[in-house]
Amino acid sequence: MSKTDDWLETRPTPDRLADEALIIDVDGFEGPLDLLLNLSRSQKVDLRRISVLQLAEQYLKFVNQAVALRIELAADYLVMAAWLAYLKSRLLLPPDPADAGPSAEDLAAHLAFQLERLAAMRDVAARLMARDQRGRDFFARGQPEAASICRALRYDASLLDLMRAYARIRTRDDFRPYAFDREHVFTMEQALDRMRGLLGYMGAWADLTSFLPEGWGASPTRRRSAMAAHFAAVLEMAKRGQVDLKQTEIFAPLLMRRKGEA
Amino acid sequence: MDPAELSLFAAPPMGEQERMVEAVLFASSEPVTLADLARRMPQGCDPAEALAHLSRRYEGRGVHLVQVGAAFAFRTAADLGHLMHKESVETRKLSRAAIETLAIVAYHQPVTRAEIEEIRGVAVSRGTVDQLLELNWIRLGRRRMTPGRPVTFVVTDAFLDHFGLESARDLPGLKELRAAGLLDSRPLPDLPPNAEDDDTEAPDQSELFED
Amino acid sequence: MDPAELSLFAAPPMGEQERMVEAVLFASSEPVTLADLARRMPQGCDPAEALAHLSRRYEGRGVHLVQVGAAFAFRTAADLGHLMHKESVETRKLSRAAIETLAIVAYHQPVTRAEIEEIRGVAVSRGTVDQLLELNWIRLGRRRMTPGRPVTFVVTDAFLDHFGLESARDLPGLKELRAAGLLDSRPLPDLPPNAEDDDTEAPDQSELFED
Predict the structure, then answer these.
(1) pTM above the 0.80 mark?
(2) Interface mutation target, options C102, C163, C174, C185, chain A, most CBs of A under 10 Å
(3) For A65, which of B96, B187, C109, C206 is 20 to 30 Å away at the CA?
(4) Interface ipTM above 0.90
(5) In total, how many domains does chain B have?
């Protein structure tokens, strides 16, 4: 991590090896911010006075090397690289007076703030964990006294129990076995029953659609289901030799009459 | 060990030894023997003498140092036993039916019994509702202005207090439950299998956490 | 009740009250609130004053009186921890992600998941928050009154107890962090860095780190 400053120079092999080791280690970082924080350490200055420009260059160098070594970087590293490249160009160019919105300096200051905040949180996290801890450094009474005459029953449940119970119920809903919605479905058996009853009323050639049951023509879902059921039913009836079917051309109305009607 | 070395590790002063015995007896889950004390304390300590000092210090206090067989422990002074009654509560986990019913009331309040049954998919026994009422975790809300004017249930302040919530609106929604991994069909492990890779899991995970 | 009767039930002398508080706190392994103490002690007692006396009495002893949030407990002195290895419980090792998340909740509470992610620069995995909830070190706070009304997290009294803190104000370095402005929520300056069209709303910076 130490010699990141002078990557621009041509350097002896050991250094380059060190860099490659660093790049291989990209998995060790928790995202671009973590990586930036690590790179910033090499500037060895107060995070408040860090050079974001220099940091952006280090980061871009890092990403380029990773790409050169064909290390696959997660998308968020590349997003950060694009953003830093943009920031770098804005930091280098004179400010455009027509450009509304935050200046490059504002953006750089914000990045510095984020790094400082992350570093600070890591620092206090370490201080927190270094504190005396219950069960490790100090202890509660080992034999709480519970023996007594009056015994009360207390029911307990934690918030986690509650949330899990709710999650369980809702998950059950999500994963309930697939059940067919019967409301808009006309089965072939139903159609067959129906058509058998209508068989006696069939005379000359008649359009199948005229036999569809009442109330099943309005909604497309119901019409489709009834149509399919009745089509299957009359095919079945034709097979049994109960009806004749004919269709003059593709997609023309399907005509049917009772077998033996002349 | 030669005498010179021993003196380097001279026993701590008696006041320190007394503190040590006090802490060990306090934290131990069972009475502690002299031998055990000697084993825990630094070389050259005299646990018997420390115990004698400690015992005198606790004379007339709210707790006493007592001998139990060959071991020692702190016990509440007999005359204060009446203050301990509350310690004797026995905690029991709520039944699954009860916790589910409670969860539904919390998430859907005000909710009628029929609605609870519809959500749970099974009938809710009278005992379950009674138990939650008795625990003072749910109470009757306003009657629903629908045919039959059914009573509704809502959760109480005692419920919020017990579960550390500031309001029932603070309960996480389905999306948030899913984000916390609570809506998974997998059983929730006590320990994430590989906590170290926490943040390097499947990339699609970030979308789970969006609000 | 007439005055004569009242005097029959006069509060016990302070020395007695101190013994009572001592007994109750000794008997419980978990912190006991002032209100709970008052409920157990006879009418007219002043548990706060008794606690003050008791606290002084245990100064420098092997066992200390500590305050945890609004409650009180006896705990062994930290310098004697080495004698207690038999009692020490092997706490499961927290991942770095969990430790950082815990610290962020403690110092920035109430804090939303999105804010935690913004500070850490990576997504918070499902196991992390779950683990902290399960340890009962964090809990849900009030929902944030911003679009989406996200849930917030705060630390619990069990967290304070575990780390020997009287209140969250006693967190190490809290004042310095606040003075340095590192606890402010400071959004990314308005303009999205590479948005050509001004209509798209500014992404908050957490998006920069999402994949």
Answers:
(1) no
(2) C163
(3) C206
(4) no
(5) 2
